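Example record for the data management plan.
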Amino acid sequence: MKRMLIITLSFICSFSILFSADTKYLIADPGGFQKCKLTKLWETKADLRVPESVLYHPSEDILYVSNINGKPTEKNGKGFISKVSLSGEILELKWASGLNAPKGSGIYRDRLYVTDIDELVEIDLKTGRTLFIYPAVGAGFLNDVTIDKDGNVYVSDMSSTNSVIYKLVQKKMMVWLISPDVSKPNGLYAEKSKLILGNSGDGTLKSISLVTKEISIIAKIGSGIDGVQSDGKGNYFISDWKGKTSYVTSSGQVTVIIDTTNQKINSADIEYIESKQILLIPTFFDNRVLAYQVEEG
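Corresponding structural encoding:
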């Protein structure tokens, strides 16, 4: 399941979070670096239906939101994709429909790829129509999608009985990686020559070489990881479906930057728009997308 705050340079200190209305200040402890501010920009109306993933399309300057609209493994044909503006307006609630339980998504050229339980669905960005459906043999809970610079599509299967990463090869879903170090894989992010993985089975953030498939641990999170996004500086934002969103430095330091677990507001497959410094959080059962502006200074 699919991208709140840019933290400057290398942080080696801990942080405290202070709350004031819709603005959250992340302040370095004595001896640390500078103050950063996280300001809530907007929230959509609660008209979405179990939004699991939010994805930014720079060419259109628009957001695509995957709506499960039912149970995460229910094949009910009620799932859909919404179009949302960067000001939080739901432009088209059911832009693409007829899906089951769509989750993670990715864009390459004029195609949107979205997981749908045990299939990968390819959708025409111009029309919203389904073009191809790629079954994933053995899959039980396809979750996130990421696409590398060459257009290779990778998909995680979070099911405990399968726990593999697929790759779309010549219009067929093939098992790309199965390993004892990959268990209940969820969030994926393709970055240069590596794949960043939120491995929910052991609660770690991992790096996988796209060439050798060598796996290394970036950080031990200690809980399930849903979305994974880069800040563009070698660090990562990650979400825990129960409601936590954290920032992980390249050296493995983990800082929780927002925690809405007590309010029972989920944090599903997040998105980060580096060029605009905006973090977007789909709230799953809360039926909204929340947007935060990241500021430094």
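Summary line stored alongside the record: Confidence is low (pLDDT under 50) at residues 2-21, 27-35.
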